[in-house]
Automatic annotation (TrEMBL):
InterPro entries: GalU_uridylyltTrfase_bac/arc, NTP_transferase_dom, Nucleotide-diphossugar_trans. Its EC number is 2.7.7.9. Belongs to the UDPGP type 2 family. This is UTP--glucose-1-phosphate uridylyltransferase.
């Protein structure tokens, strides 16, 4: 009997230090790309791939994520009373997206440790992992493509993409043998190698379909890179026991856990929105013209520049 993927795990317990001070009191997963928080895009991808049982692994200070996917009775009443039907529909849609559960990672011990917190919920069946700070956009959800590959191979499969060699130290990297159209069998993988030590430039990006055997391996693997329990290390052990595959997914990826990727996603998602695109496109064209002519940012005064800076302002006197 063919095994199906019915459950997804979204690790969202990180401290979000790259986005300080914005993430001092709010989860980075709740930062909006246009008007929708990052994690909602991730949940919607899982739902579009046919999964409606989702476990979000959170940590201290992440209550806003739970509140976002909960009912908001007061807000619904206010919108209904004001005849704001479209907004009301959106608010109810979020609460009804999926059957969403939460568990806390009580110590920040790495991605592998976060996934291990899902063991009781997942049980003895294959499951999806979607990182909470990466958004994929395409005609076919990235996760749906991985699920299809899992059904073809009957084995764990990770999403990969080629990255410049100097960037491999930011990723888990795969040594893979081509075995078909856009599919590699994993021979080895290593977490965040130095460029001259990386087996390839095939980087693991934030989507996985994993067999439950990985939980035993996560318990045994011990701490690795950065003194954390790494999911890559457990998958490496799994690949020595049975086939693990890597698939370069077609969907476009946005690394919204980095400031540049977040800004790129914000601009491009705004341009995908029919109600925003015409005026925003005109603004960008004017801005690019000013940049090319050297009129910007020279026109911004020093006070505005200081206000835009993330550096703390110094008190006078």
């Amino acid at each position: 009997m063919r095994r199906t993927v019915r459950k997804a795990v979204i690790p969202a317990a990180g401290l979000g230090t790259r986005f300080l001070p914005a993430t001092k009191a709010q989860p980075k997963e709740m930062l909006p790309v246009v008007d929708k928080p990052i994690i909602q895009y991730v949940v919607e991808e899982a739902v579009a791939a046919g999964i409606d049982d989702i476990l979000i692994v959170t940590g201290r200070g992440k209550r806003a994520i739970e509140d976002h996917f909960d009912r908001a009775i007061e807000l619904e009443w206010h919108l209904e009373r004001g005849n704001k039907d479209e907004m009301l529909e959106w608010v109810r849609y979020i609460a009804d997206l999926a059957d969403i559960h939460f568990v806390r990672q009580k110590e920040p011990l790495g991605l592998g440790h976060a996934v291990l917190q899902a063991r009781r919920h997942v049980g003895d069946e294959p499951f999806a992992v979607l990182l909470g700070d990466e958004i994929f956009v395409g005609d076919e959800p990235a996760l749906a493509e991985l699920i299809d590959r899992f059904h073809e191979t009957g084995s764990s499969v990770v999403a990969v993409r080629e990255v410049p060699r100097e960037q491999v130290r930011r990723y888990g990297v795969v040594d893979g043998e081509p075995v078909g159209d856009r599919l590699f069998r994993v021979r080895d993988m290593v977490e965040k190698p130095e460029p001259d030590e990386a087996p390839s430039n095939l980087a693991i990006v934030g989507r996985y379909i994993i067999e439950p055997e990985v939980f035993d391996l996560l318990e045994r693997v011990g701490r690795g890179k950065n003194d954390e329990i790494q999911l890559t290390d457990a998958l490496r052990l799994l690949a020595r026991r049975r086939a693990v595959y890597a698939c370069p997914v077609r969907a476009r990826r946005y690394d919204v856990g980095e400031k540049l990727g977040f800004l790129q996603a914000t601009v491009e998602f705004a341009l995908m929105r029919p109600e925003l695109a015409p005026a925003f496109r005109d603004y960008l064209i004017r801005l690019v013209g000013d940049l090319q002519a050297g009129r910007w940012p020279a026109a911004v005064d020093q006070a505005a520049a200081r206000q835009a800076s993330p550096a703390p302002l110094k008190r006078e006197g």
